[in-house]
Amino acid sequence: MTGFSTLLYKELLRFWKVGFQTIAAPVVSTLLYLLIFFHALEGRIQIYPDISYSVFLIPGLVMMAMMQNAFANASSSMIQSKISGNIVFLLLSPLTYLEIFLAYILASVMRGFLVGAGVYLSAWLFFAIPSFQLLWVFLFALTGSALLGALGIIAGIWADKFDQLAAFQNFIIMPLTFLSGVFYSIHSLPAVWEFLSYLNPFFYLIDGFRYGFFGVSDVSPYLSFLVVAVCFAALSTLTLAMLRSGYKLRH
Description:
Distance between the termini: 27 Å
């Protein structure tokens, strides 16, 4: 397992060495969302009884930050290796495609957890955030970061240049994230948009993660976890197939 641990260490070091950009900056930008919505809507909107709108926002913002940074970590690492040409050293190593997959996923999960913890702790200094079942919080944080890490590997392999990767993030990741119920309950939407929200796998991540704090959610946390687990299994299968075949890596 020396090769695996070395690759994992390299991926962890890659974002840790520029932690001001990869960890601190996302924490600050996410807290700005909270500050703006707190100033504009606090006291005017209430989603759940006895839970202020600002406190309602915090779990969604934490998960959103984790998802976006887990995706960014895997996708940027993969495409930088392709463009710089050092991907060849990874392909020539005796590492299996499963070890490569796990190293990238674990690094993405770690970055997601660090950013999420930074957002949560910063918000905790100013708001009383309840915690209903921390097991649900951990499960959705882990699967959510891993799912976006796998999606980041797919995007990094597929993209041939940074423009394509940016398009993937701006036209797929961002819309799915912002329309996943981070800022609202889907039950407040018109029927058509509520139905479309049920087709968005990111909604189940946000809703299940929020359940771990408040004990209330728009759908059952068991259903949410099932949907997330199935999506992660499907994306992992696709990612492993792409790594094994060498799609856009060896040819």
